[in-house]
Amino acid sequence: MFSKKVVNVGNIKIGGENPLVIQSMTNTDTKDVLSTVNQINNLSNAGAQIVRLSVRDLEDIEPLKKIIKNVKIPLIADIHFNYKVAIESIKAGISKIRINPGNIDKKDKIKEIVKYAKEYKVPIRVGSNSGSISKKFLNISPEKALAESALEQVKLLEKFEFEDIFISAKSSDAIQTFKAYKYIKEKVDYPLHIGITEAGIYEDSLILSSAGIGALLLNDIGDTIRISITGDPIKEVISANKLLTLLGLKKGIRVISCPTCARTEINIEELVKKVKKLTNNIQTNKNINIAVMGCIVNGPGEAKHSDIAIAGSRQTAAIYQKGKFYKNVKKDELENELINLLNNYKWE
Prior knowledge:
The chain is α/β, with parallel strands linked by helices and 348 residues long. 40% of the residues lie in helices and 20% in strands. It starts with 6 loop residues before the first strand and ends in a 5-residue tail after the last helix.
């Protein structure tokens, strides 16, 4: 099962029976307050519930304060090397900090961060990364090194009586990442932030992240997710929403369509594109399946499991609602009939 322990990030509860949370990260200059605020708001509108941003040095703290005041969702400060930046981010009002065990590993510095995290009730994500593993773990398997690098710092936080902890252990290798998280899950029960790091540009990231994140989620591992994509972070949020919806882990609309073959009697690809365009921005608190099928072989059977379904035939197409036959329409009337049906459907 997913992590039992519940940790708050701002007003969001993560872990336990709470829904999976989608996260992304800004790629604007943190010192550019306006651009960063605009991007955070755009990410939020796309469906991100938490956004991480780089806080690189003490000069980023004043802009950070302004950013926090001008957005509505919880923010995570991504900290590397300088523990004082972590402390100042906490004091500035950040909702969570992320530290890398390979970059901040001195006990006295961690203890000082914990002191302020306790005072301000700010959780800490211990985020190990295959690109910055502690040297002491370089002689063991990559996945174990990734996991142990995070777990060592978790133990240090526990030693300082701090348990508002998140853990991540990301690699660009999906198999290593899966094994690392599985190893961690067997050792501790803190909420896990999952993802494949350095996953590449859009198409490559979708395939690699779907394999890696999907495998973890289907094994009940993960409480927050990020699909890392080189480029526009809005794509990360849209992709994460779609992945969770298609896996049945988030309420939403799923469009099912056949792969087409010689039996196909209607233009499936064009029709599916139009269905997706009509439904892309619809918000619903239900799981809704729309099936677009090209012939009568699998069409009627798929229709029984769908809220709206179409099954093409040589002269006409059959439309189904809630698993029951609704009507036959001529092919040249199908698109208008479908548009009318979608426009009048009760999505809530």
